[in-house]
UniProtKB/TrEMBL annotation:
<dbReference type="InterPro" id="IPR040498">
    <property type="entry name" value="PriA_CRR"/>
</dbReference>
<dbReference type="GO" id="GO:0006302">
    <property type="term" value="P:double-strand break repair"/>
</dbReference>
<feature type="binding site">
    <location>
        <position position="468"/>
    </location>
    <ligand>
        <name>Zn(2+) 2</name>
    </ligand>
</feature>
<feature type="domain" description="Primosomal protein N C-terminal">
    <location>
        <begin position="652"/>
        <end position="749"/>
    </location>
</feature>
<dbReference type="GO" id="GO:0008270">
    <property type="term" value="F:zinc ion binding"/>
</dbReference>
<dbReference type="Pfam" id="PF18319">
    <property type="entry name" value="Zn_ribbon_PriA"/>
</dbReference>
<keyword id="KW-0238">DNA-binding</keyword>
<comment type="function">
    <text>Initiates the restart of stalled replication forks, which reloads the replicative helicase on sites other than the origin of replication. Recognizes and binds to abandoned replication forks and remodels them to uncover a helicase loading site. Promotes assembly of the primosome at these replication forks.</text>
</comment>
<dbReference type="GO" id="GO:0043138">
    <property type="term" value="F:3'-5' DNA helicase activity"/>
</dbReference>
<feature type="binding site">
    <location>
        <position position="499"/>
    </location>
    <ligand>
        <name>Zn(2+) 1</name>
    </ligand>
</feature>
<feature type="domain" description="Primosomal protein N' 3' DNA-binding">
    <location>
        <begin position="19"/>
        <end position="120"/>
    </location>
</feature>
<feature type="binding site">
    <location>
        <position position="486"/>
    </location>
    <ligand>
        <name>Zn(2+) 2</name>
    </ligand>
</feature>
<keyword id="KW-0413">Isomerase</keyword>
<comment type="similarity">
    <text>Belongs to the helicase family. PriA subfamily.</text>
</comment>
<comment type="subunit">
    <text>Component of the replication restart primosome.</text>
</comment>
<feature type="domain" description="PriA DNA helicase Cys-rich region (CRR)">
    <location>
        <begin position="465"/>
        <end position="487"/>
    </location>
</feature>
<keyword id="KW-0862">Zinc</keyword>
Length: 753
């Protein structure tokens, strides 16, 4: 695609043309003239600076040619300004470029947006140029050459300088070239930063071996005497997989000690083949901990990768390519040579799904990259996702738990307890006995706050968020009703605003109320609560986690936040207060998520032989998620859940896409969503087996006052589904281009409620 703009001078016969992709919401590349000065050095994957509209952007060359398309003329083209040569990495490998193109195709996203995966923008300030005293003197004395004067004047005009992205070409040449000359003369200074620049992920690493950086990693107890489960059969099978000249996919279901042992063995084997390893985790804290553990177990340098959140991180991006790189989902795009293993730890973690365009899932991208690199990909977890558990392309390896080493689980049917029971008689009794013996207690409830909401017992009034329309949870400590979607806070009402009855009553329980109840029952016990409310301040979070890990508290209370970092120390009593609370949401994965959390909580308890017990409170004792935990039989859960998914036609039986229409005009949003759904249904053939549901309103945060409507599309063939959606979204964007309506496609969403 030709970029319209200022005509370039007539090129010499040796001139070539390059298609350049820029990191914007743009589907196609733009064609530029290649200047003779870089013609011998430019290649596919080169990072280049190009004029784009009224600014200068960095882009990636995706093709080079000596001929133009018939409909183009060289006089209509702009010229590439320069190669990017001021950093360690100045090219993106063809394999990663191809990977980004596949992601764009499957996740129905513009290819330009996918460049951000390979070239993340920095989180610090954009590059800014500031005039020096020498530069200002050159302007005052008239010693500044005329070609440089307009650029220097513009920079000197503002005391704070100007952003590089706002520089425009001048009649005497491009401002960017003028900037280079001004810097050489010390007439301006650049303030080092990276926003708007393309930074390849090869440099985003923190070596564990550097003492300064090691201090930034959180405390972790690494006991190398633990039974980390190095299995000779695993070693032999892995050796066989590494000999293959194509991708091998392994799904590993095992307790965390056995997974870590197998990962350490895999790292040693892959390094013996002189190949690199990528380890992907959903959470940063868990990735940091895993970095330390693997360094202790393997004796190798293990590098922790992350974006440069602060300037001091920038010094650690130089140096040789790491052989073992551990990080969160973005590490899957690290530019490493000869990748032999990609290990996805906790493959079911929803944090592996990118929430912004192109909304990729790192688990699935790992398989795509492994195909490109002819590598082994391992999807590992103690409780697999249904997609991985029934993956027909993978070899499934299971390490069963030893039932003799599991805790005793006692079920308490809350339907037979008094109404409003939070801690049952059996749980209170077990807690009392444990405290007498100085034993640790963990109470798990996956709902923060004091109560789910308030209700007027006379007229049924419930306080709702004015923007999101959801019921407002009650926070007793803050004395407020605060929306969990948009953060709006309302004062606690003295009486019902409708019928004026008093008082309004709290409904449902949260961890804040559990803490209050525990303090009331056991006033001398030390209690720590871990949830997103207590962990939002880093300094407080470090202290709370330290107390939880060291076992210095008698009672630990928390939500799923308990399981986002390193494994917790074992506890003698684990109370699961409302095992079925996660089942009452409009998400087809509700049972799966509930089962995963129940397994995580129960696994914290000591074995029954060591006095470990789990007291599981529920109003749905016959639910298959509860029954599977009671028998420690994951097959029971997966088989029954698969039957339900087949009946309702949900993954892994099919693929789904979540479509969102957003805009400020409610009527226009409703019209566009209805038209989108009708177009999809009308254009779908019988053979495609596409099912379109909706549109329906979206609950949750209303960004910038926008209204949303959602559709859900199901299809058996993911590539066919993506192709159909890509055509439809391009058509809808053309129809509503001037009407401020946004169309969003989320393939394989992890949240569908």
């Amino acid at each position: 695609m030709a970029l319209q703009g200022t005509a370039a001078s007539q090129p010499q016969p040796e001139a070539r043309f390059a298609d350049v992709l820029v990191p914007r919401h743009i589907t196609k590349a733009f064609t530029y003239l290649v200047p003779l000065s870089i013609a011998q050095r430019i290649q596919i994957g080169s990072l280049v600076k190009v004029p784009f509209g009224q600014s200068v952007l960095e882009g990636v060359v995706i093709s080079i040619s000596s001929h133009l398309a018939p409909e183009m003329t060289s006089t209509s083209l702009k010229t590439i300004l320069s190669l990017v040569e001021d950093r360690h990495n100045t090219t993106i490998s063809p394999a990663l470029l191809e990977l980004s193109h596949k992601i764009a195709q499957y996740y129905v996203a513009p290819w330009g947006q996918c460049l951000r995966l390979l070239s993340p923008p920095s989180l610090i300030s954009p590059t800014r140029y500031i005039a020096t005293q020498l530069g200002r003197t050159a302007l005052e004395t008239g010693t500044c050459p005329e070609p440089l004067r307009p650029t220097l004047q513009r920079i000197a005009h503002r005391a704070s300088g100007i952003l590089s992205s706002t520089l425009q070409p001048t009649q005497h040449g491009h401002a960017l070239r003028a900037v280079d000359s001004l810097i050489e003369r010390s007439w301006i200074n650049p303030i080092l930063s990276n926003a708007g620049h393309i930074q390849t992920r090869k440099r985003q690493r923190i070596p564990l071996t550097e003492p300064e950086q090691q201090q930034t990693l959180p405390h972790a107890v690494v006991d190398t005497s633990q039974p980390y489960g190095i299995d000779p059969a695993w070693r032999a099978h892995l050796h066989q997989c590494l000999q293959a000249d194509h991708m091998k996919k392994i799904v590993l279901q095992a307790p965390w000690q056995q997974r870590i042992g197998r990962l350490a063995e895999a790292i040693r084997q892959v390094r013996s083949h002189n190949r690199s390893i990528i380890v992907v985790c959903g959470e940063t804290a868990k990735a940091r901990w895993l970095t330390q553990v693997l360094a202790s177990l393997t004796g190798l340098q293990i590098d922790f990768a992350q974006l440069p959140h602060s300037p001091q991180r920038l010094d650690h991006r130089q140096g040789p390519t790491p052989s073992v790189l551990v990080g969160t989902r973005s590490v899957i795009f690290a530019q490493l040579d000869s990748v032999g293993l990609i290990w996805v730890e906790g493959e079911e973690d929803s944090a592996l799904k990118e929430p912004k365009e192109p909304r990729y899932h790192a688990r699935d991208v790992a398989s795509l990259r492994a195909k490109e690199d002819h590598a082994v990909v391992v999807l590992a977890s103690e409780h697999l996702s249904l997609e991985s558990n029934f993956d027909t392309e993978a070899e499934v390896h299971r390490v069963q738990k030893d039932i003799a080493l599991q805790p005793k689980i006692e079920l308490v049917d809350l339907t037979k307890e008094s109404r409003g029971t939070l801690l049952s008689h059996n749980l209170r009794s077990a807690m009392r006995d444990a405290l007498k013996c100085k034993r640790r207690i963990l109470l798990f409830l996956n709902r923060r706050g004091y109560a789910r909401t308030l209700i007027c017992r006379d007229c049924g009034w419930v306080p709702r968020c004015p923007s999101c329309t959801v019921a407002l949870p009650y926070y007793r400590e803050a004395g407020s009703l605060t929306c969990r979607y948009c953060g709006v806070a309302e004062q606690l009402p003295d009486a019902c605003p409708l019928c004026h009855a008093t008082p309004v009553s709290p409904v449902g329980e949260g961890t804040e109320r559990v803490e209050a109840e525990a303090h009331h029952l056991f006033p001398h016990a030390t209690i720590v609560r871990l949830d997103s409310d207590t962990l939002h301040r880093p300094s407080t979070a470090r202290s709370l986690w330290e107390r939880a890990r060291s076992g210095s508290c008698d009672i630990l209370i928390g939500t799923q936040a308990l399981f986002t970092q390193e494994p917790l120390p074992q506890h003698h009593v684990v109370g699961i207060l409302q095992a079925d609370s996660g089942l009452h949401v409009s998400d087809f994965r509700a049972a799966e998520r509930t089962y995963h959390l129940l397994v995580d909580a129960a696994s914290v308890a000591y074995p029954a032989s060591a006095g470990g017990q789990v007291i599981l409170q529920t109003r749905l004792p016959s639910h298959h998620a509860v029954q599977a935990l009671l028998s420690w039989n994951p097959h029971q859960f997966y088989n029954e859940e698969l039957i339900a998914r087949r009946l309702l036609n949900y993954p892994p039986v099919c693929h789904i896409a979540d479509l969102t229409v957003a805009g400020h005009d409610t009527v226009l949003v409703e019209e566009a969503a209805t038209r989108w759904g009708a177009n999809l249904q009308r254009q779908t053939s019988v053979e495609e087996h596409l099912v379109v549901l909706g549109p329906v309103p979206t609950l949750g945060k209303r960004l910038r006052g926008q209204h949303h409507r959602r559709l859900l599309v199901k299809g058996a063939d993911p590539d066919l589904l993506a192709h159909r959606l890509r055509d439809s979204v391009e058509s809808m964007e053309r129809q509503y281009r001037q009407r401020q309506i946004k169309f969003v496609v989320d393939m394989d969403p992890v949240e569908s409620g």
